[in-house]
Protein 1
Amino acid sequence: MPVLVNIATLATCRSEGGQDDVGVIGDAALVWVGDRVQWVGRVSGLPARFAGETRVDARSRLVVPGLVDCHTHTAFAGWRAHDFVARLRGASYLDIARAGGGIQQTVDATRAASVDDLAARSRAHLWAMAALGVTTVECKSGYGLDVDNELKLLEVYQRLDAEGPLRLVPTCLAAHVVPREYRDNRAAYVRLITDVLLPAVVERRLARYCDVFVERTAFTVAEARTILTRAQVLGLGAKLHADQLSDGGGAALAADIGAVSADHLEQVSAEAIDRLASTGVTAVSLPLATLYLRQEPMPARRLIDAGVPVAVATDFNPGSAPSYHLPLALLLACTVQRMTPDEALKGATLVAARAIGLDHEVGSLEEGKSADFAIIDAADHVEWLYHFRPNACLATYVRGRCVFGGA
Amino acid sequence: MPVLVNIATLATCRSEGGQDDVGVIGDAALVWVGDRVQWVGRVSGLPARFAGETRVDARSRLVVPGLVDCHTHTAFAGWRAHDFVARLRGASYLDIARAGGGIQQTVDATRAASVDDLAARSRAHLWAMAALGVTTVECKSGYGLDVDNELKLLEVYQRLDAEGPLRLVPTCLAAHVVPREYRDNRAAYVRLITDVLLPAVVERRLARYCDVFVERTAFTVAEARTILTRAQVLGLGAKLHADQLSDGGGAALAADIGAVSADHLEQVSAEAIDRLASTGVTAVSLPLATLYLRQEPMPARRLIDAGVPVAVATDFNPGSAPSYHLPLALLLACTVQRMTPDEALKGATLVAARAIGLDHEVGSLEEGKSADFAIIDAADHVEWLYHFRPNACLATYVRGRCVFGGA
């Protein structure tokens, strides 16, 4: 039963309170038993029964809940650095997609890669995330776009979740774009997803969520409704890539069908914000994608002020967000989107856990939750997020075990 | 006489050619003798006389010249995380300065700190920069604002330059803001700089440059001209913080007096761009400051297209740019300012060396120059800058000696 002591500040990110309430405790202690948080509070209030337990020294640093990256496309083959250069020269995301670059190019490379190859690449990314203090990662398929290759990607995630060190939450994103083979028969691809792929995914327990990219270059609201309704009947939760490049009605659909999250929302309308607020959908902000695509960001301030919880994630993928640096996404959420450091931190912990339906298990340091936490080289979370460094994380614990660094 | 082989690509950043000419060599080799580059080229052309020399394996990675961070305020005491939060809540740079926060607060903390304390803090930052591939750092005073404390800061830099691992280029920025004690007698502070401080700095060889912050909250063009003209007579080069928060005539003054660089330039006018182009002043872009201050960036595309060389630096300081992550500044130069990866890389190597008058010595990998280089975990510089990671640098060499990592 280890007792972490000498914690300068501990941000509990507790379940009660709003997005700006990170529940900071100064001079804190944290006790865990096995994989569970047993007690958290000021060291002066540490119960006598823990007095003789093994002490771990946080060296007067900040402790935060393990970060939750609730939107990534971690398994893929091949980079797309030339898309980056094309965009700097003025090509739009739609230009690149229409010219046959973009997602379809990654699909070709990913289809050609083996499970072992994809697992090796993804493993390296996940260990690098763990070193940044990340402990839970939502991972989407979506570069297979046929039954075998979508299942292959989800198998990669299943293997890496079992292997550790991180907790993965797999999402089937077969409806990422319409694959080349179905361009003249979109309905047949939608039927392939609803009638063949999703039943197979559910039978093999390969995903918890189904996601659809609603966009002019991808799927219509009607197609998304068909796919996600079927997914919900089969027992999967629904997520949406919504209103990224145009106001395409994705956020309204998310509210309509009770999706757990609506992600991107750079172009979200005022009406859709009200719908999200009244239905309890979590918005997921992806400021790295906004930066790389040179877009106006999601209006996070307006969403939060309207009562919509806003998670912050990386969108890690080889095209529009080739970085898994979640603390950088948090810095951008502050500087570009004017979220406060408190709101940003809660957006990458408890609110992010809500966006993947895991807030009963992770996202805050409270009794009974998983002992997932990071020790950060800063006096408090504001100093951490403001003084951007390559990596300020000193140690990462998942389920009570140290997986990176040390105290 | 080590020979670095198995280099996937080597960007020479050669002296000839424009800002977008980084002189990429595939399948390259690099030979150095002592602290000097002896030969660089395709490995197939390696002269027979080097065949028997010690080989160092770059493991099929990218090699670039050691990065040059040509604008930093590295020596200071105290952080200013609360300025960061105030700005997110709507306070402007001028608001914070007028309310007694900002630079003056760092001045108070820095005056109270000893040389040893400042050296310890700065040393940690410099080693962290070295780990990112940086080999030369311009370092400004400017948090002392009286004779003794300005000299103290420059002594810190002198000590750390002698100690290594990095090459420091010290700049006297006594004209950063008017200190509290002289607020009602600005002319006396200007005279203190010109008549007492600068002669002492020159006598003790404590700086190569003199810099002035031309801004409504700092110094007028007339005051800057007085200070910099005096500095030039004493043998120092001139630099300017110009047109950051308003178009205050700083760039025009830089052109007028033949400054080596004009830095910031977020608000530079079209006329001033033409003046800079015709006089050969190097512009220094500081996109991290732009991000933290939520400003429109320097119009780097217009400057480059007009023929002005544009360096990219961090502006590392505890207020407006609390990060020494130069590769992040390069990513922002690409995404926010639409510089190409080639232009950004040359902006942090050869062009940055020009901005501190050291382009005869560092900034490119050419015969006779200092053997300063970094081995980067990427196939080429585009992949490096696009796939942002905490740190992609595998090894850093300064004057032919490995100071970080290894090949």
Protein 2
Amino acid sequence: MDKSIFRKRIKGLRQNLARMDCDTAWIIQPENRRYLSGFRAEDSQITESSGSLLINESQSLLATDSRYTLDAERDAVDFEVQTLKKGLMEGLPGLLKRMGTKNLGFEGDYLTWVLHRELSERLLEDSPSVRLMPLNGLVEEMREVKDEMEIGTLEESADLMSGILDEVITGLGPGMTEKQVAWQIEGLVLESRAEGLAFPSIVASGPNSALPHAVPTDRKLEKGAPVILDVGLRLNGYCSDMTRTVFLGDPSPDFIEIYRTVREAQTAALKEVRSGVMSNYPDAVAREVINDAGFGDYFGHGLGHGVGLATHERPRLSPLKPTKLKKGMVVTVEPGIYVPGKGGVRLEEMVVIEADGPRILTRAGNFYDFAS
Amino acid sequence: MDKSIFRKRIKGLRQNLARMDCDTAWIIQPENRRYLSGFRAEDSQITESSGSLLINESQSLLATDSRYTLDAERDAVDFEVQTLKKGLMEGLPGLLKRMGTKNLGFEGDYLTWVLHRELSERLLEDSPSVRLMPLNGLVEEMREVKDEMEIGTLEESADLMSGILDEVITGLGPGMTEKQVAWQIEGLVLESRAEGLAFPSIVASGPNSALPHAVPTDRKLEKGAPVILDVGLRLNGYCSDMTRTVFLGDPSPDFIEIYRTVREAQTAALKEVRSGVMSNYPDAVAREVINDAGFGDYFGHGLGHGVGLATHERPRLSPLKPTKLKKGMVVTVEPGIYVPGKGGVRLEEMVVIEADGPRILTRAGNFYDFAS
């Protein structure tokens, strides 16, 4: 990827740090790390970091261990790679001393309470003048509005996923299990240009479709019952996320009404995903359509979320913590109705907010147009 | 699963809490939550919890949101399920009031700094008499020594994985890509009784095998070059984890020496994985074999780790933070030698520590016995 993009981001970070009176940022959150450095390694679990960035006004270090040295040097071309022998907590105070750090910004949304305490104690002993301060989602906020390269990649990611989902939906038949369909999706993603799945595919049929976070089972697809397919892939780091609900054969009148309501809610909400609108407003619009149709108790999650290096990132399109939508944000719009024991319908589009409104990145194709 | 197992665990937890002078435990770490309640939901990311347990001397609550109510009621039979409308942080103070909580134990290794601060502030306002105290890995420690049911399930998990890996290795041929092999493994796991993969399979060939955490690429397998296969599945919640290194055709003399050294290190270390031994000792034994053969710079990770509901859990078999090994622990023994740019060899067995020594749970089959 173009080096100048990372330089621009680092420059932006440095300006933000100066404003916060923070001289060094310590970045451990994997997507923030990749956004600023290009380092692609993933962390196998929260307690096993593949590396930290330390960025001040003039230096950019990537501290890692010997398992990741080669990856780090290949990916993070503008960073000086430091291979720590004894673990991060042992090595960090020395690196901070070298950088002359006074105010160290940390990611409070990611750092655990124990690691924060451990670092505080080590610094108190070693470098009592270093002060710890939370970055308060600084890098996450920088990631909210996408640049041209990011929008292009997200569009490619959504387009590639749409094509694969089209192919899978065309081949669906009664008797296939949810797991088989999920495996087929994964195979097509692996054969494609994608790095892999963005998240484990959801394939939920019949009563399982009433569970918004269903895991594929050995349940066989049946005629007339809904099948929710919620899928995404990762292309050059950028995620796609889309959902279609399909029926093999004709659905019952109940499900036609549910489907129509969800689609109506989605269409109404999509119109309001515009620059300058508060992020809770499209959610409220979708919720009203669903409430008015009498399904208000069955839409338990938020309307959508930002998509980028992470499948779920800022902004949230939900009733909570509203923020202003901006040009360049990429978000999902995914209302759903879930009737326990019976089944559900969810429809999800991924859109980029442009100057004159939202542009849908996910390709259509699989929507029903049940006549009213 | 047998309810009595969960009752025994909750009883054990309550005894431990009483000893710590902690009246209520707040459990959010997904494997700890499953261990104590049977609730199987996974958390899609750290900021999106599918539920919390609140356990005091007489009550067991599972607080979740509407997406998970059905799952929670089905899985966590001994728990009273509370569906929170406005999120955990809003609902938690009220639940703690109802439970009469004074000293609330939290998981400091998992809770983020921001959530800890948010809860502290809310409690200060709402219930200033509640004190927060870290649980210091209490439940993780309970999980270290496995009961009979757990050992049986881990054995089945390892056995199932071994059979699948055997089948995959038999079918390997030059020209297949790493991604294709990984996908084939996933397909066989999905067709099996397993819930799915325990972690994304590592299939690393040629120079990629020098990266201990390689991600499968489009690289084609070649004759004579090593292929590392590091795989695991999850069966009824319990993970397996095993690694074989195979060669298509005859390896070079260099790789024969590397392979022989790793296998010798593994065999020597396995003998020392016994009850009463400190957890850094088998690591030191393996490291000495590798050092003596002149490859000391190329073994950058610890020897192994506990396996259970998580792929990586306590105890760690590494030079750091030694603890005493005990009967009933299940751990991996996985030395490796990684020569940058050239390739690597890793061999991993999963063993249970019994009264008279280690018993290997992973099935052999794919080891080479290169004559000296």
